Amino acid sequence: MSSLTTNVGCCSDSGWLSSFFKQCDTPECCSGCCSALRPRYKRLVDSIFPTNPQDGLVRNNMEKLTFYSLSSPEKLDRIGEYLAQRVARDITRHRNGNVIIAMEAMDQLLVACHAQSLNLFVESFLKMVHRLLECHEPDMQLLATSSFVKFANIEEDTPSYHRRYDFFVSKFSSLCHNNHNDPDIRNRLRFAGLKGLKGVVRKTVNDDLQVNIWDEIHMEKIIPSLLFNMQENHQSSETPDSPQEETTPWTLAENCLRELMGRVTFGHIRSVIRPVLKHLDNHELWVKSGASHVFKVIMYSIQVSFKVLSPPKKNPEEITFQEKGATKNSSFTKESKYPN
């Protein structure tokens, strides 16, 4: 009896039963004395976290949570909201081990569940990714990007009318320009940023209800991020017509540009080419290096039906720029700064 009084006393300091329930939100605070009074979905979520976070996700309990989510899809939004609350608390308290476990659980639930109520669950998931991307710890940013990429590869059964990806475009673009002092961390963050941009494009390009990824405001962030990483390579690939092995940020950036140009429609070609020309102008890359390779990648990747053939010149190998400071024997022309 004395032990029960002690346990109850830890969460009933303010007096009445109503405050008792509010203060008992953390399961460890009262040694399980109130666990039976908590909603089942909360108990299932709490059970996937081990006593020692280094032990990782409790697999058996995760299977129970997944089965419960599939059996009661109307609880998905509450499960997502509760996991998001736990992540926010653990980030504040620097409990990175629990954050990793929560994100792994979210990833598994996203893959397993395809109910109509998944949209509300995704909102909680994106809040968690948003929160992690705002952290200054590279490991948390890498974790968030990895989860977002997994989510981007999932085909959702129901459309979303209110979801926005503006923050993710801006944040992933900034990661592509990361200048961390450690070269390894810098490359990993740039690589993650490029993967994130690729995921945003895949998630939005074929969904008319999502943000229009071809808008100028987005292309002026995405295209310079790709070209910035491509220009890091001093030795362009010899096969601009085929994807490269994604081992470095510049090879991934080149493949991202290929995929982007392969998805662009005729009405949006201008919104992609304009930022390319601006970037080459702003960084004076027309003469230095890389410009011809960029346009080769674009022309090889664009859909065949969108290519326009012009009458052949007398000597196609000797096409010169029409602007001051251009070199001869270039492989492409730049008739004007920007397309009409």
TrEMBL record:
SUPFAM superfamilies: ARM repeat. This is Protein EFR3 homolog B-like isoform X2. It comes from Limulus polyphemus (Atlantic horseshoe crab). The gene is LOC106473502. Signal peptide: none annotated. InterPro entries: ARM-type_fold, EFR3-like_ARM, EFR3_Homologs. It comes from the Eukaryota. Pfam families: EFR3_ARM (PF21052). Transmembrane segments: none annotated. The lineage of its organism: Eukaryota, Metazoa, Ecdysozoa, Arthropoda, Chelicerata. Belongs to the EFR3 family. Residues 312-340 are annotated as: Disordered.
